Amino acid sequence: LVLPLGQALNAYTQLQTGLGALQRIEEILDLPSETAEDRPAQAGSGSAEPAIVFENVTFGYPGGGTPVLQDVSFTVPAGSRVALVGPSGAGKSTVLALIERFYEVTSGTIRVGGTDIRDLPRDALRRRLGYVEQEAPVLAGTLRDNLLLTAPGADEARLLRALDEVNLGALATRTPDGLDVQVGEGGVLLSGGERQRLAIARTLLADAPILLLDEPTSNLDARNEAALREAIAAASFQRTLVVVAHRLSTVVDSDQIVVVEAGRVVATGPHRELLETSPLYRELATHQLLVS
Ligand code: ATP
């Protein structure tokens, strides 16, 4: 344990990707190692409580003017897959940041597993949530260092399985170094798609029952696109998934879609229904912001 964490801390000091990323790395490093007994029981579809509930949430960034989210309400049933869609700047990523409690809501309530997140100790909340942002921070060091961050003590087989699940198995076999292959400063030796899938593998290893995923906006090549789709499918197996979606394929596969426009929820429903009922969704799905 000492060696990888030492390397991680060393890498941590070298990270040049801004305060936000540093803060998140700090949170990853803060994650306590988890045992099966620690794991929250409400992992998947069996739970009576919804995984996440937003109740009339209004929020403005500190020092900002008008609220970024206004009177937002929606429910994410445990074990379901919910996509947030909407124009750029609508407030989708902010929804994820509030679930993580990076900021406090101005008014309204967010519940996770039935409990107001203000009543949950931060580590208990974070243990329930895996968060993969668009530009997922990757530490300088090896593949193994990056994976062990969320699963200290995990054996080789478990690390390799997580890599396979996100279609990164080849990274560990293409050099004689195996899992000890260097990923470069901030993961520069990996493509953007690979970096995000590595972050997904980390959350799979952490085994949080709820996964929050900010899908990349950038165009991925066909292979990375398919790999991401499979990684998301693997990640949502027996988990609740909330994804800020920029791809039609991600949205179509979701149980429920929440359409956000200028900080408000303007429609919710499954894909087929929204095509009929929401002009904005139809526009997003047919030609504007969702990549097919
Ligand atoms: P995109 O699809 O482009 O990622 P989004 O729907 O996820 O957009 P958010 O990133 O949630 O939108 O941003 C919503 C609004 O909040 C935007 O006007 C944005 O400029 C503002 N905003 C986002 N982050 C911050 C921040 N840390 N401080 C102040 N304002 C912010």
Automatic annotation (TrEMBL):
Domain ABC transporter: start-end pairs: 52-287
Q: Does the keyword Transport apply?
A: yes
An annotated Gene Ontology molecular function: ATP hydrolysis activity
Indicate how the chain sits in the lipid bilayer.
Answer: Multi-pass membrane protein
Source organism, top-level taxon: Bacteria
Q: Where is the major localization of this protein? A: membrane
Q: Which residues form a coiled coil?
A: none
Ordered alphabetically, the record's keywords are:
ATP-binding, Cell inner membrane, Cell membrane, Membrane, Nucleotide-binding, Transmembrane, Transmembrane helix, Transport
Under the cellular component aspect of Gene Ontology, which terms does the record hold?
A: plasma membrane
Q: Where does this one sit in the cell?
A: Cell inner membrane
Tell me its family.
Belongs to the ABC transporter superfamily. Siderophore-Fe(3+) uptake transporter (SIUT) (TC 3.A.1.21) family.
What name is this protein filed under?
Answer: ABC transporter
Biological source species: Actinoplanes friuliensis DSM 7358
